[in-house]
Amino acid sequence: MAGGGVAALGVKKERAAEYKGRMTLAVGMACLVAAVGGAIFGYDIGISGGVTSMDPFLKKFFPVVFRKKNDDGQNNYCKYDNQGLSAFTSSLYLAGLVSSLVASPVTRNYGRRASIVCGGLSFLAGATLNAAAVNLVMLILGRILLGVGIGFGNQAVPLYLSEMAPAHLRGALNMMFQLATTLGIFTANMINYGTQHIKPWGWRLSLGLAAAPALLMTVGGLLLPETPNSLIERGRVEEGRRVLERIRGTADVDAEFTDMAEASELANSIEHPFRNILEPRNRPQLVMAVCMPAFQILTGINSILFYAPVLFQSMGFGGSASLYSSVLTGAVLFSSTIISISTVDRLGRRKLLISGGIQMIICQVIVAVILGVKFGTDKELTKSYSIAVVVVICLFVLAFGWSWGPLGWTVPSEIFPLETRSAGQSITVAVNLFFTFVIAQAFLSLLCAFKFGIFLFFAGWITVMTVFVHVFLPETKGVPIEEMVLLWRKHWFWKKVMPDLPLEDGWAADDDDGNSHHK
To answer: Which of 309, 387, 449, 459 could form an SS bridge with 364, CB 3.0 to 4.6 Å?
Structure first.
């Protein structure tokens, strides 16, 4: 397929300079409502860590952990090492992994909105079941339904945001998803802090409140406009043009419309996007769709956010002090995502990823050293060292929040050509949830086995990912989403991997000097 029929299809030349349009109210509203999907994802991450450290919840569903937690003779690092408790947290991610792959054909054939609505309905059902749970089966079933919601929501929302946003603001608007995620985590921490005092049913309130954003996402999904890219891909060309004019605030959308039309021509000639994504011409995007989300989780951030209360309790902070600490990390994550939103379209993706990576490595090593020297298997940290650990963890979270946090979602959602975009996003979500599942399931056992070395384990991975970005990721800021396919042909490494395509105006052939955006 490398040289033949498909070469004549697809985006044939750069028209970015001819793109017209501005940020409109329609785009702003659409992005706000769509990003609620991120808030639910964040809420579910944040809520489970707090709920699993509440005594009434543990007593009802995990009596073994409850006894271990209150046993002073227990090794600090191993108190919460229980596969049932890990399954409660992890079932959500496994369900999300499977459903994100199911969501791909729905998003492609029925539009981005359809998946957003499916996700919202599933969230509603899951939150209701969890709040009413009387046994472990109901609890896990509710988590699975929440997972299905996450699979659909995380598959459709970043795509929706990337396609609605004008090219020069795509990074910032796409990050609304991550901003909403951090807001969800922060809200969950605040709610847990309040509900821990409501005994014995506070945990039900914590789990049930996920229904509020779920309702907003479902209603919003029904009222939002569909993206022009999706409408054109599904043959509703005139409607797609009308939506494009409305969201760009101008009738002069010829260049962008032509790019979409050419991209959808190619998209419609491809019957099996998942098979197509394996072809050499899609190799760079596939590598990014697997590596970016995997690396995002291998920073170790989820371990810190999931188990922040548990982690702080293990270090000897009291029960409510640990929730204080989690609220603090949630607030830091939220504020650092705002830093990222304001700088991503100015500084670019690469600078943020590399600088964030370096800061995270330093923080992980410092935490490992403090814990290794000052905190044994049964000792407690002195107050000054405990404060130092919290400060360094906050600096780690700050660096994550402006780099891998938002960009781990933004970069994969903006690099795929239309014909494999939905499948590519499914792979991104599935990989993200797979690694989240593995780390969630293994973290408490790893903590028990590695002790403080767990932080060095993550620091090693952050080193790998920082080098990876420096070598393999071209700068994508300001490149229109339908012209992204041309960017890889200018990169010193990826142009060797991709087959030659006879493009119009000799574009790819002439532009092979490697001096693209890649520095």
So the answer is: 459
